[in-house]
Specification:
The chain is an alpha/beta fold. The chain contains eleven helices and eight strands. It has an eight-stranded parallel beta barrel with strand order 1-2-3-4-5-6-7-8, surrounded by five helices. Helix 4 links the parallel strand 3 and strand 4. Helix 4 runs parallel beside helix 5. It is globular and about 45 Å long.
Length: 245
């Protein structure tokens, strides 16, 4: 396995969106040896809990815990402290919770790190607008005027001013985020669909190659791998496309 492959595979975050640990473990077995990042979201975490996260760490994976916290600052601080104690490499909050809430997440991280020197600081990122949110939902339902891109950039700037490491956004917005927030600001981009695959509920989609070319730091891929007939081949194909980009 060459270094370039390893580096690129590490920028692929596989969304383990499964109802229980045993189905998730089947996919782990299928993907064994591919040094990708693993994402645990609400569905799996609410079913399999912290034990499954620890299992992923024991297996040597980097873990993104995608629980999208959005609550009062004090509660988010406590949540962030517990999450940091779990030893995850990345977790997130909603930028819509505001600057004090995002800063509280960082306070929670610090508190955990102070209590255990063996812990490493996780990347803390904020969701800007969900990749399933289109123009109409943004304006008519959520009540935010302007384009989705404007709303995303505004949240990205707010996230950066709170001191977080980066944002979750669509890869369609990564280049603009980079030009406003700089190239060290992390962009994690779901809504990735290899050419010809089913878009599902995602609205703002790009292919893996387009996302990398657009400057995404990490791409998040769920169903194009988990629902594929041959998940390993699907994952390898995506990494190949990322490498070619
Ligand atoms: O199956 P699919 O590739 O659409 O999965 C995308 C994953 O990324 C899901 O786990 C979803 O919860 C997550 N996600 C997203 N949009 C965001 C943040 C996270 O789709 N803004």
């Amino acid at each position: 396995m060459n270094e370039q492959y390893k580096e690129m595979a590490g920028r692929l975050i596989v969304a383990l969106d499964y109802p229980d640990a045993s189905q998730a473990k089947n996919l782990l077995q299928e993907l064994e040896g591919i040094p990708c990042y693993m994402k645990v979201g609400m569905q799996l975490y609410y079913a399999a809990g912290p034990d499954f996260v620890r299992e992923l760490k024991t297996r040597g994976y980097k873990v993104f815990l995608d629980l999208k916290m959005h609550d009062i600052p004090n509660t988010v601080k406590g949540g962030a402290e517990s999450i940091t104690r779990l030893g995850v490499d990345m977790f997130n909050v909603h930028a819509a919770g505001g600057k004090d809430m995002m800063k509280a997440a960082l306070d929670g991280v610090d508190k955990a790190l102070q209590s255990d020197s063996a812990l490493e600081k996780p990347l803390v990122i904020a969701v800007t607008q969900l990749t399933s949110t289109g123009q109409n939902v943004l304006n008519q339902e959520i009540g935010i005027p302007g384009t989705v891109k404007d709303a995303v950039i505004r949240y990205a700037e707010l996230t950066q001013s709170a001191g977080l490491d980066g944002v979750v956004a669509s890869a369609q917005e990564s280049a603009d985020i980079m030009s406003v927030c700089g190239k060290d600001f992390v962009t994690v981009t779901p809504g990735i669909r290899p050419a010809g695959s089913d878009q599902g509920d995602q609205k703002r989609v790009l292919t893996p190659g387009e996302a990398i070319r657009n400057g995404s730091s990490y791409i998040v891929v769920g169903r194009p791998i988990t629902a594929a007939e041959k998940p390993r081949e699907a994952a390898e194909q995506i990494i190949k496309e990322m490498l070619e980009a």
